[in-house]
Automatic annotation (TrEMBL), chains A, B:
Coiled coil: none annotated. It catalyses: 2 cob(II)yrinate a,c diamide + reduced [electron-transfer flavoprotein] + 2 ATP = 2 adenosylcob(III)yrinate a,c-diamide + 2 triphosphate + oxidized [electron-transfer flavoprotein] + 3 H(+); 2 cob(II)alamin + reduced [electron-transfer flavoprotein] + 2 ATP = 2 adenosylcob(III)alamin + 2 triphosphate + oxidized [electron-transfer flavoprotein] + 3 H(+). Transmembrane segments: none annotated. This is Corrinoid adenosyltransferase.
Length: 209, 209
């Protein structure tokens, strides 16, 4: 990086960059379909929910009307709660935010109550997915409720298929069912390379909380 | 899910949930170290930057002072720009936001100018990493500048090692160097399962932009 570069090296760099630009331009020109997408973030690694909240911020930045349903509630008030619900006065008219009533399922230890909570949260989500005025819907940790069988996958697939054509939906959580991956447009698997928790570091505000 | 459950099934569920809760409680009890962490989001899949912006929202939610440096600037104004820079009056005193001057490197086609831009952005980042008052630093797409050799990896590793002990740092971008992965606390690889772009769908506001 620090070595002096010859005019030749500069020229080679310019040519490579031009070819790359042409390639990217061609790819962009080929992507002509313009519609709402379904994004699924799954896998065991960190970043599934935080990526969903990052896309929520992007969507609010573009002036979209947004809905959020959190299907799992943690032990403590999270930063995204504090940020989007408390600081969010500036965009309160454009953001509906619903947090499922109960804690993690291994905290309630009551399967019937878990199912009732999950289905109540799904009813709110289904309302957003059917709403023409809703541009972006984040269904945080929905996959957990699907894997546990608390919400029927068919209901979710039907609601996604019937939603307004320009509406974006982001679904997060481990273990996304194969049929949901099939139905989605963009799917990322967040893979754990390493995690601070395994090295004895507590969950950190701003990072996990 | 819809079949009637016997009292036995309920009891088995409750026992499983109790064991799971005990396991999670033990793991949480073991994670006693409380300090700033370095998080790296890498891989080719979607979600690296959006996860970083989600953690920024969490951090702002907790009242943290935050810094952002974007090492690559796209073709258009992004939702995160609009959201955090324009709507962010409520927390302007707690957020420093720096966007590198030039576009994608294959758009400028001028290696010397790219290096100068990257190094100027790094100087801003280094100032944040040295700042005791800065609780959270997002270095978006820094990995790209490292892979291209526009910024020396040693500089970055030294600045991370010397930062305030409670400061969190999130670094995003494809191709995270091995020594950076080694230095980080939490590393996720975002793997592409599928991407809408490959199916001919344009980059969407609120999702990619």
């Amino acid at each position: 990086m620090d070595s002096p570069e010859t005019a030749d090296a500069q020229e080679r760099h310019r040519e490579r960059a031009q070819r790359k630009k042409a390639l990217v331009d061609r790819r962009i020109a080929r992507a002509t379909i313009d519609r709402g997408v379904v994004v699924v973030n799954t896998g065991n690694g960190k970043g599934k929910s935080s990526s969903g909240f990052g896309m929520l911020a992007r969507s609010l930045g573009h002036g979209f009307h947004c809905g959020v349903v959190q299907f799992i509630k943690g032990r403590s008030t999270t930063g995204e709660d504090l940020f989007f619900r408390t600081l969010g006065d500036a965009f309160a008219d454009r953001l509906r935010y619903h947090v499922m009533g109960e804690g993690f399922t291994w905290e309630t230890q009551d399967r019937d109550r878990d199912i009732a909570s999950a289905q109540a949260a799904w009813a709110v989500a289904a309302g957003m997915l059917a709403d023409e005025a809703c541009d972006f819907v984040l269904l945080d940790e929905l996959n957990i409720a699907l894997v546990k069988g608390y919400i029927a996958l068919e209901q979710v697939l039907e609601a996604l298929a019937a939603r307004p054509p320009r509406q974006h939906v982001v679904i997060t959580g481990r273990g996304a069912p194969a049929a949901l991956v099939e139905a989605a447009d963009t799917v990322s698997e967040m893979r754990v390379v390493k995690h601070a928790f395994k090295a004895g570091i507590k969950a950190q505000k701003g990072i996990e909380l």
